[in-house]
Amino acid sequence: MNHLLSIEELNGPIIEALLADALRLKAARGHHETPLTGQTWAMLFTKSSTRTRVSFEVGIHELGGNPMFLSKNDIQLGRGEPIQDTARVLGRMVHGAVIRTFDQADVVDFARLSGIPTVNALTDEEHPCQILADLMTVKELSGGWQGKKIAFIGDGFSNMTVSWMWAAKHLGFALHVACPPAYSPSRGFLDKLDAANVVITHDAASAARDADVINTDVWLSMGQEDQKEKEQAFGPFQVNAALLKHAAAGHIVLHCLPAYREKEITAEVLEKHAAAIFQQAENRLHVQKAILVAIANNT
Questions:
Q1: What are the residues whose beta carbons fall under 8 Å from the beta carbon of 278, sequence distance 6 or more?
Q2: pTM to 2 decimal places
């Protein structure tokens, strides 16, 4: 594996192998292998971050590398230098890059022009590292996804749902996405996805019915905070105690954080399921280490 740019470009065996290695690395933490020894990895973040920044910095360090954090205010990207020029400069100086930004095309262009391993740490189109951590958590807490129903309640065409839909395509589990009609996946995307196991509904209770996993995210993605009219459409799509009465016995609730209590999820539900949600957050570290090991070993 040379890069991780999206869930779309992966397949079932690659995902399974990454998750198996993440579980191995989690169990062995404290006894580090160091495939990044002598390497410096640039972390280019034009979006703010807590979990992504900390997990990547710690992970690169534990694998023997040196993380170099670069916000848009630290480098010329913040003054208008194109990503193409930044890529060709950094490609001559560092050994890999982790990029958290808005446009998926910027990550793809950086990987192509820099000639160094590149990891998508979030774009507006996909959030691959988060979905791999979510799948890892499902495997740990539910034994896996085979024969399970996973529900996503919220924005039907966010970076989270797009990545979840590609994961369902590759792994074959049943995914039900409940969203307001105006925030559904586009017909063009669904035609491209071509996955009969992905169901789009505008009824949250229907998606939650007999679901083994209930997943949600903020209603307003980063950069959309001023779109209050969008937020008003999501009232019936809150994850609350009433909705969870429809879920399967022993269900788990996931949220990639940050969480806005009493909006997409109630404080009651978040605190009741906090163990799973914060295990999910921790798993970002382990799955990203597995990604970096796979890239270092070109497997």
A1: none
A2: 0.96
